[in-house]
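Example (one chain per record):
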Amino acid sequence: MENKKTCLYDKHVQLGALMQPFAGYIMPIQYSNITDEHNAVRQHCGVFDVSHMGEVTVKGRDAERYVNHIFTNDVTGAPIGKVFYGMMLYEDGGTVDDLLVYKMGEQDFFLVINAANIDKDVEWMEAHTEGFDIELKHESDYYGQLAVQGPESEQVVEEVLSLPCQDLVFYTTKRVDAEGETLVLSRTGYTGEDGFEIYGSHAYIMAAWDKLMKSGKCKPCGLGCRDTLRFEVGLPLYGDELSAEISPVMAGLSMFCKLDKPEFIGKEALVRQKSEGVAKRVVGIELQDRAIPRHGYAVLKDGEVVGEVTTGYHTISTDKSVCMALVDARHAKLGTELEIQIRKKTFPGVVVKKRFYEKHYKN
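Predicted structure:
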């Protein structure tokens, strides 16, 4: 299958971005270099094209009940404008996807799903609509999306795009009328910094990108630093730290699974995992060396393979070689000494918290 292009493809090419396939799209990996772009987001402001993400709307009399049925977090009686993070699960507790759910109105929800999973997710959602009076619409082809991220993002969104956003606290959203259309604007992101995500038509997103680039107040950022930024603050990536084989309990994300709500698909499996324990867990590991642990490298304990690296980097913000890894649960305790095999050598490491850098959100 041919890779798709986002509405901003030509603009990335004009800026000289390194373009590569990602999740079925040709996406910008970097413009200048990953370190520059990463630091721009940590210290100032960076802009990402995330138009490859998927959007689904759920409206109708049973919208809240339906969302609660397919989603691990609890949206019951939430205020309009609240955003929730959580997962959709298979019956066995494996993860269909992790996603954001925006409550736009009383029975009106906006769901944002991962690009690589769009077709699978929509098919799965449609397969579970029976018995619910709802209208489920796949809107991914309509929406483009920009993520404006970093400590100066509020100022940039207000001044460059003229979108009022100061009133939003972290994980809230609102509709905004601009350029003759209605946008979805939220104070959310995937970087560990303050930031905003803007959803609109392709025409709006292209015009907004041009304004941002012309302003000189923010730097274009590729998916390379999107990964280093999310990794440093311990945010999972579907396919690495969550998957059909990796449940939220294994990933250490139980706080987003409300086991006290009546029911959701996969709940029984999670209840069982919580009471009986799981065989494997996702942990953080810090190496005592500068060698870089990469995805798929083996994790050892006394020469025996006990897991593998899911994501690893020499971090830009803290100058440490660290990784997240899926390891046998008996070796998941903080302070456990493990080794990582990098080519023909093994390097000592120790289990640490998965958050390698502190988040800086505006609450």
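Caption: The chain is about 20% helix and 35% strand.
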